[in-house]
Batch of 3 targets.
Target 1
Amino acid sequence: MGTANKIPGVSGGIIALAAGFYEELIYSFSRLDIKALKLLFTEGFSALYKRINGHFLVLLFGGVALSFFSASLILDYFLNRTPKLVLGTFLGMIVASVFYIWKDLSKYSYREYLSNCIGMLLGLCLLWVNPGVENDHWLFVFFCGMVSIVGMTLPGLSGSLLLLILGNYTLLLVDSVNALFYTLTDVLGGNGWGMEDPERRRLLGVLLFFTLGSGAGLVFFSKVLEIVLRHYKNITISTLVGFIIGSLGAVWPWTGETTQANEGLWKIATTPHKIFYFPNLGDTTTLNVVFFILLGAGIVIVLEHYGKQQTT
């Protein structure tokens, strides 16, 4: 789930759903509330641990933390060297995920299709927002933390995709996480905290507010999710599917700045910030990107197949 949450277009909730522990996940998250805090002071830690399904959460967050750091270093390496291949993999994962989520809806009526169209329009509107603008103000970072946790609790909505659209994906899920990793490495290696580096201090502060926002979002959204999915599951999922489809431009590998000419390319969309186009399919780089799109889709197909085996 930690790795999935870092990939735009893939939500950790999908992994939980495929692996068969999604209901237990939401149940455990929803019990992280004021009642749990009161229980800690009145009856002690053991009572709190039992109420929040502590054994499950410890294993879950332990795995998430481990994969989160490892995935961060890997993504940082490839995003700096082969960004188109990374985006191609993301694109393939998104398309395959949307297909399976839509296919699993229990019914189709005008409400589901209308919700899908509304979500798609909202996603398309986001193409007009420049996703490249990074903002490290603590209030905005706190808000990003609340948004990012959605991908852990709601199958189909990727928190990292929203961070990519908001412009803070690299800052929050790559740079700040790597800063914490290098700080811990320095401490364990006896080299101090490395706080003399102002950039590292900035990134660790960003990570702190991002973590606080994630915690607040986890408590809030898990409560809301129980109510929404209980009464409006199909409408909610169909809206989210439309939103993800409409915002595919955030991970489209072939884009160019509007200030640069893209002669001989088939333009498919133009926003105030970017030109989206289809490249020459005879180009070797393009064929490599297509291969990674298929690879990304294949990963989701394998996960879906595994999930079906677990539930039968």
Target 2
Amino acid sequence: MILYLSKILPNLFLPIGVTFALLLVAAFTRKWIFVWFAVIVFYVCSIPLTGRLALRGIERGMERRPPAEFPKVDGIVVLSGGRPIAPGDAKVSEWADADRFFGGIELYKAGKAPLLVFTGGWAPWNPDAVIEGEILIRFATEYGIPEESLMTTGKVVNTAEEAAAVAAIFRSNQSSEDKPKILLVTSAFHMPRAGKQFELEGFEVVSFPVDFLSSGGVRLSLLDFIPTAQGLSETSLALRELYGRAFVAVFR
């Protein structure tokens, strides 16, 4: 139930939820001012300019660097990114984004750690899906990573569970380190929140952000002020991530 609430409640404070609430207020009060507020909120949050600025804000401070520039650590941890199931009886699991997987592979092949851990992302509303970590381990062996260097957490449904499950692996992995040092691989927008969760579990975290969503060097144009579904999606993603960071800061 908590998982469902964590997915549903933020929607009330995202652009669509706020727009819908304002329209409801307008309907009950019969005041056009709330309709105009709804239009303004929806327009501002739907234009590509807002989405681009929002993504740039949540990825601030993140940059992609070659694996050679990173230190050696106790383990590489790759967070789950979600794998959709393609239509058909075979229920084939497809890549949503492979950057996290290949980031972990690059770091391991660069000799940065003896252990590569894939978290086992899974969602109860998609029960037919194979645990993501199990799939990625199979792919990793095909890329030449020894099986004895690969581990997964089993089922986890959010970042907090990922951090706790990985901590359990390190505690049982004959390590005498009081504070294991890891290279954490996840999307750039997600890294600040994920890094905090792993630090709370006792890790020293070195960030290896991938899957960047913002682009530099883009020039302003008329198209930036025309509402699009992508603009709305990008703004909503940024706001949801900010809400997640606030939750971790307040309640953890």
Target 3
Amino acid sequence: MAATDNHAGAGRATPGRATLALAGLCVLVLLAATLEVVLDAAVGHSPLTPGAPGITGWLQWGIGERLGFRVFLIALLCFTGAYAALLVLARRISPHPRAARWSIVLVGTLTVIMCAGPVLFSTDVFSYIAYARMGVLHGLDPYLHGPIRIEHDPIFKYVGEDWLKVATAYGPLYTLLSYPLAVLGLKGAVWGAKVEALAACAGTLALTWRCARARGYDPAVVLVAVGANPLWVLYGLGGAHNDVIMTFFMMAAVALVFSEREAPAGASVVAAGLVKATGAVLLPFILLSRRRLSALWGAVAGLVAIAVISYPVFGLHGLNVISALNRDAALVSTDSFPNELAHLLGKPGVFPADHTLLKVALVAIVVHLLWRTWRGYDWVSASGWTLLAIAVTSTWLLAWYTLWALPLAVVARDRRLLIAVFAVQGLFIVHQIAPLLSPASQ
């Protein structure tokens, strides 16, 4: 696919009508699949839409039906197929004078449709709101207590059962960003979280466009590769996950480095890490690549600034991301690659010894990438490989974790990274649609 060199694109012929017609068909499939999911989900009472305050009654036009697994999986399959075909056609379409405008309209439309719909697949957004209400309305530190402490709050019944007794795992910057949601009421808070995700998504895509231009890649192709990605649209935006806020700060750091502004880039990496800890992995690669300490001083300044703001609110607990990482590392999800590998090997699941082996493997991968970066390897590629390795070796893999490396992959020098990201996402999607292929579904 992916990113096409601008100069190479300038020498290619304008795409023919057949190519444009096929691309148009792919666009229609993307829009139709997204609308199908959103309108059916708006009906409510679906295992794919967690219980939530009613925010999408205005979408119940009488044409949707309760979103079932079969309909969703078919929509996911169609979306993925159209996305893959559109990427194959991207090199032929990019010379068209309106290609950039079309890509912006497509991605913008998909983003708005998904953000206008109900929350999908995950209760995480209700945890965000619960932690915010704990701090703002109930005077409780979300780093010391779980939502169980506010069981009489109306948000409590929407929080996932696994997280009722668990303190927040998110960084203090995100927790502070979520605090304004507490005063908006339940419906207002859900919309507020969606607006935050929408703004972060738009910012990430704009920065990715800028980074693509800086590296000589076709920004229109890069925009579609990220903004029309099925997991980005249906899972990342569908769940209003704060991962898109982390990717915004990561891509801001990349853009700043490309602009030779390393100190603010270091601060942006810290901001990413204080949303979700995995965002901080970019910093050592920037330092090894640039061979200067500017990014480190910027990171220190950013950390001090956020600590000064967050300490009066959370104390030192807000900066203790290690305990949250250790806690989450012990969890096992059915979609994780280690869990699936264990089943293929005839094991019932992942054992403590397996967790240790996975950590050792991840450390070895990161050390190797650091060494290669020191030897001149592209630091963006190394950072992307690290984020992908974290997702693949994690026993707690969720769809939106596979998005961490995607914006980096489309602007990386090593095109193998993008292939690997697509391969991991493809395997995840195949795992999701496997029930369609079982005899029971026929």
